């Protein structure tokens, strides 16, 4: 896929992101996509819609989806892999590759996770120690029920739907719980947009744990998710 929008005979038609509205999009090898296609993610991730402007008309499509993306840490994929095969990329090549993910786009990604290459033991025995899907699904269903109960009477169903100003005004953090986020904002490591997303993730962590309000640990966990992956690209 080289673009998020398909156009024919000057007529705007729904593209991949628009057709995925209400569902999810998985983009593998995100760093290999053309920069224009990567940057096209910014509007749907921020607004849940895509607007196509042409000389004679402008069309807006719903594009509210969950984005899941994966990419290597460098062009050859071996940087930090911990294997006998060494990374062959120069520092400049790694920097250019990571810079494909702009700071504004990275700021719109709530959960950023760095994964290590699995060992043979992980492949052979890791699956046997993992939680069953049914257990995880039940925990997620219970968390969504907590969200629905808290948001009853509002236009929103889940934490990610709540606008930033409303989140800060009605679902703000306690002084103790919010202190790690305040410190991160003061250092400049988290933007105003990022702060709203940290609060949403902290509420989700609390919902998953069955807590009535986010704790200091929930906020710390939300901050770790923002620092674990794409922060190097900002």
Notable traits:
mainly alpha; two-stranded antiparallel ribbon; disordered C terminus; 45% helix; globular; disordered N terminus; 234 residues; two-stranded parallel sheet
Radius of gyration from CA coordinates: 20 Å
Shape: globular
The count of helical stretches stands at 11
Number of strands: 6
Largest sheet: 2 strands, antiparallel
Query: Could you name the ranges where pLDDT drops below 50 across 5 or more consecutive residues?
Result: 1-10, 230-234
Proportion of residues in helical segments: 40-55%
Strand order of the largest sheet: 1-2
Topology as a string of helices (H) and strands (E): EEHEHHEEEHHHHHHHH
Determine the N-to-C terminus distance: 24 Å
Which assembly state applies to the chains in this document? Answer: single chain
| Secondary-structure content class | mainly alpha
Mean pLDDT: 85
Explain how this protein is built.
The protein is mainly alpha-helical. Helix content is 45%, strand content 10%. The protein has 11 helices and 6 strands. A hairpin with a 2-residue loop joins strand 1 (6-8) and strand 2. Mean pLDDT is 85; it is low at 1-10 and 230-234.
